[in-house]
Amino acid sequence: MLNSGYIERKLKETGIKIEENAVSLIASKSEGHPYVLVSMCYAIIDSMAENEKKITEETVKTALPKIYNDLAKDFFAPMFHPLTPKAKEVLLTLARSISGKEFSFSEAVNRTNKEANYLSPYIKEMLRKGVLNKPERGRYAFFHILFVEYLRGRGEDII
C-alpha cells in the first residue's frame, strides 16, 4: 500500500503539507495505482485555493467529483471504448451485478446469463485490453474499483 512519504516528497517543493488521514483516503481511493494516484493528486492541488497550504481529508473529499470526472474522461473512457460492443455489454452487466471488483468465471456465466463458450472470448478480450486482471485460475478482477464505479454510473449510451 501507499505510504505518506511518497506524497510528502512530491509535495515538498510546493510548500503544501498533507494530513495523514488525507493520505489514507488517497491511498484507499487510488488503490496504489500509479496513474490514478498521480491524477488524484493533480486534481486535488488543482482544486485548492491559491492560498491553501494544507491538504486535509475534507480537501480530498471536495476534489472527488473533479477526480472522478478527470479519470472518466482521461483514463476509463479510453480503456472502455476500444472494446467490441458485445464485450462492453458483458462488462457493463458484470460491473452492475457483482459487488466489489472480483468474481469467478462461474459467477460471470450466471450474472450475464450467457453460455461459458459464448462468454469466454469476451473475458479474454477484456484481459488483453487491461480492463480485467486474472489474480488466479478461474478468478477475475476489474483492474480498479473506480473503473467499476465509472461503469455502474454510465447508461447504455456509452456502448
Word description of this protein:
The protein is mostly helical and 159 residues long. The chain has 2 domains: 4-71, Helicase, Ruva Protein, domain 3, CATH 1.10.8; 81-158, Arc Repressor Mutant, subunit A. It contains 8 helices and 5 strands, in the order H-E-H-H-E-H-H-E-H-H-E-E-H. It has helices at 4-12, 20-30, 34-47, 57-80, 85-97, 105-112, 116-129, 145-152; strands at 17-18, 54-55, 102-104, 132-136, 139-142. The strands form 2 sheets. It has a 3-stranded antiparallel β-sheet. Strands 1-2 form a two-stranded parallel sheet. A hairpin with a 2-residue loop joins strand 4 and strand 5. Helix 2 packs across helix 3, helix 2 (20-30) packs parallel to helix 4 (57-80) and helix 5 (85-97) packs across helix 8 (145-152). The chain is elongated and about 60 Å long.
Integer tally of domains = 2
Which bin fits the share of residues in helices? Answer: 55-70%
- Calculate the mean pLDDT score and round it: 90
Tell me the structural class. Answer: mainly alpha
CATH class of the largest domain: Mainly Alpha
> At CATH's second level, what is the architecture of the largest domain?
Orthogonal Bundle
Q: What is the fold named in CATH at topology level of the largest domain?
A: Arc Repressor Mutant, subunit A
State Rg: 18 Å
Main beta-sheet strand count, sense and barrel state: 3 strands, antiparallel
What fraction strand?
Answer: 5-15%
Low-confidence stretches: none
Give the helices and strands as they follow along the chain. HEHHEHHEHHEEH
Number of strands: 5
Q: Gap between N and C termini, in Å?
A: 34 Å
CATH superfamily of the largest domain: Winged helix-like DNA-binding domain superfamily/Winged helix DNA-binding domain
The strand order across the widest sheet is 3-5-4
Shape: elongated
Count of helices? 8
